[in-house]
Amino acid sequence: MTEKLTDALLYLDGVSVAFDGFKAINDLSLTVEHGEMRAIIGPNGAGKTTMMDIITGKTRPDKGTVLFEGEIDLTRHDESAIALLGIGRKFQKPTVFESHTVQDNLELALKRDHGIIATLFHDTSKEQKDRIDEILDEIRLTERRSHLAADLSHGQKQWLEIGMLLAQDPKLLLVDEPVAGMTDAETVETAKLLRRIAGEKAVIVVEHDMTFIRDLDVKVTVLAEGSVLAEGSLDHVSADERVIESYLGR
Amino acid sequence: MITGFLFRALDRKAILVALILLAIAVAVPVSNLMLPVSHPLHVPTHIMALFGKYLTYALLALALDLVWGYCGILSLGHGAFFALGGYAMGMYLMRQIGTRGVYGHPILPDFMVFLNWKELPWYWYGFDQFWFAALMILLVPGALAFVFGWFAFRSRVSGVYLSIITQALTYALLLAFFRNEMGFGGNNGLTDFKDILGYSVQAQTTRASLFAATAIALAIAFVICSGIVNSRFGKVLVCVRDAESRTRFIGYRVEHIKLFAFVVSAMMAGVAGALYVPQVGIINPGEFAPANSIEVVIWTAVGGRGSLIGPIIGAIAVNGGKSYFTAAFPEFWLFALGGLFVATTLFLPKGIVGLVSSGFAKLRGPREADRVEETLQPGTEAAQ
Ligand SMILES: Nc1ncnc2c1ncn2[C@@H]1O[C@H](COP(=O)(O)OP(=O)(O)OP(=O)(O)O)[C@@H](O)[C@H]1O
Ligand SMILES: [Mg+2]
Asked: Which of A37, B57, B132, B342 lies at 20 to 30 Å from B40 by C-alpha?
């Protein structure tokens, strides 16, 4: 048994990663508590997506500590192991399984045994089907459940992907630019949806849409050039000189 | 558990295909053996043998489609698994010859006597038993696919790179099997078979039985593949094909999924090869030729990949065409084959099966088309 180093759900300390000498993440430190929702903003190329790549095992950091639940070293696991540990991720470019139906997309994401035997032989149980219905309702795609995911609008694909995250039942959700390409009304609904999810689960949201960030009404971390520039309420960070200079002011 | 799998496997399409294949398995041999040669419905032996060969190709194409059409692994080396299954069967058939060989040696096949070998190499042990050979027909291609896939999929080799190394795999085996020291008959391969399970391979009844066995094997493989693609595992295969990294981020072990599909597919290819050898009477290193594996890809593409019927139709249609062309215009066959592949890729990405099903959709009339149109309208209900 390793001793818990921190009570935080996610703990990043002194993380750096360089691509061909270019430091995409530079001595980044960040903690997210259980059930917390955190918004992350920052200019293009600040390293927001790269940070998610590191947390989910897609990119290995050159140095630094990445701990989940205080004791699991995420740098030692690959993407599928990390997903099974309870970290779900929505990509910046919405990625759903286009040749499957909406319902199948959710069934495939559902938290359960993903081994070969189970996937070959087990049926979806009554409870699991009920859970799918609940999620369909939550993401407002009940009507379209038997349509192919390819036929959904851009905004609906974003929602389906969030629905798949819910089906995964993770402890931490990483949501990269969820409202890109959504109408204003859809954006408002998405903020409500994420706020409903937070509390039970921790959520990290990356977004450029300031109205949406304001709607979320949570602690904001500003990233720039691969490290944290400022942290606090949206009003607090918006008043910060360096933030205005590097991001908001432009 | 198994009943659930079978229940999913036997959808309408699978039942239909299996019944047709079983009917063929009965009707063709009966017609060949029972009807007088003059009867209009009599199937001549050479036609039966030809179609028996096509059915083994269909089984090979079906095996390829499971990994290529469903999981996106474009193997250009499936001919290797087919040939290995064929060699395993060939070794059994060689050992059935006994003292009837040219040199009359009770144990050693002719080519070993010719090479002055004194005893049977250890890897020929057991092949005098049919059950052992049958096991090897599955295990040898399966084991090779496992070892190959283990390294390739774990190191995340995919796309063109994977295709190239599968070509290299079959080419390496081609070179190895050409060597006399390998102990598989070198250049000439294994031939001059006499008996299978105690019956003469030349006998008309044996040929009819081999035809029936092939059709039945294809029916069984079809049902197994249907069960696989209709299960959640089959859906995950398609996920891996369309969005591999997304599949990982949901928590599926993509390398295990690919490995399983690849091994099952290799075993099916091995069975196809094993049924091929007694029907054509020879197995030689030429079966490992890289071009053979590429032809399998063409059959599958022409028939329609990503559907289980497509590869069967493609294998039979293209090989039927090949038999006709190589007799009528021998010089043109390769051009025709290349042209067919290019035309399919450009105009019929879903192959013959795709063409037929879109034709049916049109026939069903404009009402249906309207409905499809409607559902394709960008929806707005999420915003309301
Ligand atoms: N695999 C990679 N190889 C090379 N460079 C990379 C790689 N991934 C990211 N980068 C670079 O790292 C920097 C940070 O990229 P990242 O995608 O994390 O930015 P971001 O903050 O998500 O930006 P955006 O708001 O545009 O999404 C960029 O300059 C990008 O080009
Ligand atoms: Mg980004």
From this structure: B57
